[in-house]
Amino acid sequence: MARYLLIRLLSLAAALVVASGVIFLMIEVTPGDPARFMLGMNAAPETVAALSAQLGLDRPMGLRYLDWIGGMIRGDFGLSYTYKVPVADLVADRLALSAPLAALALGLSTAIALPAGLYAAARRGRLGDGAVMGLSQLGIAVPNFWFAMLLVLVCALHWRLFPAGGFPGWSDPMAGLRALILPAVALALPQAAILARVLRSALIEELGRDYIRTARAKGASRPRALVRHALRNALIPVLTILGMQFSFLLAGAIIIENVFYLPGLGRLIFQAITQRDLIVVESVVMLLVFAVIAVTFVTDLAYAAVDPRLRHRG
Amino acid sequence: MSLLALDALSVRIGARPILSEVALSLAPGEILGLVGESGSGKSMTALAVMGLLPEGARVTGSVRLDGREVLGLPEAALNRMRGAEAGMIFQEPMTALNPLMSIGDQVAEVLRIHGRMSRAEALEVARERLDRVGLTAPRFPLSLYPHELSGGQRQRVAIALAIALRPKLLIADEPTTALDVTTQAEVLRLIAGLARDEGMGLMLITHDLAVVAGMADRVAVMQGGRIVEAGPTEALFRAPKAPYTRDLLRAATHRPAPPSQGEYLNQEKDQPAFSWQKYSKSDGSALLTVETATRIYRLPRPSPLAPHPELRAVDGVSFTLDAGESLGLVGESGCGKSTLTRAILGLDPLQGGAIRLGDHLVSPEMPRAARADVQVVFQDPYGSFNPRQRVERLVAEPFHLTGRPTDWRARVAEALREVGLDPADGRRFIHEFSGGQRQRLAIARALIIRPKLIVLDEAVSALDVRVRAQVLDLLAELQARHGLAYLFISHDLSVVRAVTSRCLIMQAGRIVEEGPTEALFTAPHHEYTRHLLAATPRIPAGWMTEEESLS
């Protein structure tokens, strides 16, 4: 187990180093000079050069990379070119919304997918299975912003249960939570549809295995064989999807954030790209990479928790 | 009163009849052998008793367990019966256990399903049960997972959970088919002993007549979903009534007939039907020479700084195989025979010694043309064929070694004819063929570039006895016609005995004994050979008529 952990940690570190290099280089070769962008098209070349020097953009690439990495390790992500505030503060603000939103959506999608997948697998080939599969097809096919608009129309404008958009902050936790409910539902539905399908097919595969027959021959009822035996074995593909979904939810919610006027990470990065605020782009992308890698690491640990064969192989 | 009574049991799936009018009975403490080829309905009979038939199966007739009708019982009552009144052991120990649950929990689960018991209490009983099947305490803690056990040990766990509640009926469906002979002997002894000690009725399902001959009180023979014959074991073997039973018995001890019929008719009674030595025309020139071949695997380091431990999978093996000779290579799983085979095929490099095929040194870098002299037939032909290509393409595959001749279609047609198939079969796909036909196709593929040596790696192990007999005949015929040499690798001693003239016994990477097959089987020198022979189930001498054993 210690060996398994050590290998995972080393590969996590290696992935971070490679990713940071790639991100830095990508930004370097992207056309668009932040200094020129900030000063406008008519700025004199000398002014642009002066600003570049002030921002440190004229220094050698290697040095700037090391500065960037060193800063991030200390928690100093630099100053946003456009907002002139520390990037760390910007990101922290947005994370306060995006992280809870992602967690909420993920929890919701799991809460929907788990019973749906179990039910469909148990009723395989029957009406209930058909209904769940039909709904999940719909969930995958219909874009989430459409769900979002529908939710706004019905739950916010018609029933007035939740606010239609905006985010009041966490000073009043209940109000904050209420503002996140509809976006979380809109995000969760398509994810739940995918998850339910993956879970169903993994369960059906496991139900065909010999050990299920052994369990039934022991006297285990169908539900018991499904939940006690098949479910745990079916978790590996489900965990993989869950890990991928969390990373997606953290930053992939740009459209939903726009529909609900939420100041999230997705919108931050979108604005930063259009304004050539490269330092923000770099930092947020790096943060997302870190999140993805961290989630992968947690997923690997979850695999090992589920499967003794991984623990022992090391 | 009988413990288990089946009467007019019929099962259909869709329009297909699976079982027809099956009638059987089993007394408490009795061992009933249920014998038949694959698809004969043996397993379906067992599943019908357990109420575990696949969905959509329609059952009629009667299954009475301890006087109570099982068919039509509600699911909840069936769940109470399974595991408590009837336990079942399945064929594949490698997959029959939940890989994510400790063995203690898997045995304890039976107790917890059927009685309100705390986990600790159930584990205590599980401990006692595992002890009972020979997985004793300090070496086999309850916390072990299935992947930490060998096939035989896993089968013991499966047995422990089947007998956890001392059911009155134990059904064992091919419990040892996937195991080595020595493990098979131990597991069979264990099951029979348990049945006798606990007074359980045991239904032993197998395709292997020799297994039931040594164990069962009574035998029932199944074919096509029907019981064709049933009776006390010895009487049935001595005087089989149904033609099908006679066929099976003949096939089980089949030796391929030599091409010219006259040769063996004047043999004495106790001699084998014919001597393969006389028949396989070894001309004394070595075709394959293996000199102190050594194959070493590096194992993972136990700790980051320790050196890699080494596994000498093949350890200084030397032998020669003459042109036209049939050489057997026998050993249990893990003895290194597959590793040796891969080296002989030039797939893996050696770490010591040399293998020569004719004038060429065998290695992964050897020229393609030299590879054409050796071809291989594996156990599972389906897995070695691309399911999306037509058979003619599959059979023509080895031509990539020699270059495809313009008349390749004619050559494929000829190869198909040689193995007893229709040249028109070349247009079909592999899934349209039965197991035996697939193995014929694999032989056709091996044959098409006229190799000098064919390596037969468990090539008939997965086949039913009657099909196996036919394939062995075919191999003998082809050998006589083309002067082929065979390296016959198998764990099945009776097959090796029937078709080879010389035999190597392999254990832990080394050849422990070598000699003419008959001599080796009648007077083994090495301890391990004796051990193997003793463990091999056989039909007692004298049980079978001369006509049958001579086939």
Plain-language structure description:
The complex is a heterodimer of chains A (314) and B (551). Chain A has 314 residues and is mainly α. Chain A contains 14 helices and no strands. In chain A, helix 8 (173-207) packs across helix 10. The longest helix of chain A has 36 residues, at 87-122. The radius of gyration of chain A is 24 Å and the shape is globular. Chain A starts with a helix and ends with a helix. By secondary structure, chain B is an alpha/beta fold. Chain B contains 21 helices and 20 strands. In chain B, the strands form 4 sheets. A 6-stranded mixed sheet of chain B has the order 6-7-8-3-9-10, with helices on both faces. In chain B, strands 16-17-18-13-19-20 form a 6-stranded mixed sheet, sandwiched between helices. A 4-stranded antiparallel sheet of chain B has the order 2-1-4-5, covered by helices on one side. In chain B, strand 17, helix 17 (465-482) and strand 18 form a beta-alpha-beta unit. The radius of gyration of chain B is 25 Å and the shape is globular. Classes of the chains: A mainly alpha (314), B alpha/beta (551). Chains A and B meet through helix 9, helix 10 and helix 14 of A and helix 2, helix 3 and helix 5 of B.
Please summarize what this structure is.
The complex is a heterodimer of chains A (314) and B (551). Chain A is mainly alpha-helical and 314 residues long. Chain A has helices spanning 2-29, 34-39, 45-55, 61-74, 87-122, 127-141, 144-158, 173-207, 210-218, 222-251, 254-259, 265-274, 278-306, 308-313.
